[in-house]
Structures are given as C-alpha cells and as structure tokens.
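Each field is set out as follows.
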Amino acid sequence: MENVNQAIDEIVNYIKNSPEYKNIILIKKQMDTNDELNSIISSIKSIQKKYIRSGYDSKYKEELDRLHEQLNEIPIYIIYQNNLNVINQDINYIKDSLNDYFYHLFN
C-alpha cells in the first residue's frame, strides 16, 4: 500500500510541477482581481440557474451565449482555459492508464 501512495504522490507532484499548473495558479490570482471578468462569471452563474429552472428557456440561452462570447474575449481567461485544458488532458490520460492497468490486472 505504501508503494501505491508513493506512486500517487509522484503523479500529483508531476502535475503540480508542470508549467501549465503553475501558470493556472498565477493566472487565477490575477483573475481574482479582474472586476470585469468576475462580473461576467457571476452573471453566467446566475443566468445558468435561471436557465435550468425555466426548463431551458431560449431567452436565457441567448443571454448565456452572449456572456460566454464576452468571457472568451478576455485574454487572461483564454490563457487560463488553454492551460486548464492541458492539465485536464494529462489527468484524463493518467485516469485512462490506471483504468486500463486495473482492468488488465483483474480480468
């Protein structure tokens, strides 16, 4: 069991030491101080709730689409999303590898 914990720690450290993860942490701090970005994100969250409660009314969908377009025009958000996508791909690759390993181990 100790070997498993050590291997998991190595995987976590690999991700945490990646340039993309380090960028995400730095960018997230910058994003937290960006009032425009935070306002758009808050609006999106609020309208998403209304959209779901309304049974997916198209007027809310149009508003969400407009807000997402605004969000995707903010350079720091785009950089954040790009780095996050790389990290998520790495995590998915690790997850798939572990699933394959255990599938072959037990079958």
Notes: The mean pLDDT is 94. The two ends are 21 Å apart (CA to CA). The chain is about 90% helix and 0% strand. The CA atoms of residues 24 and 80 lie 6 Å apart.
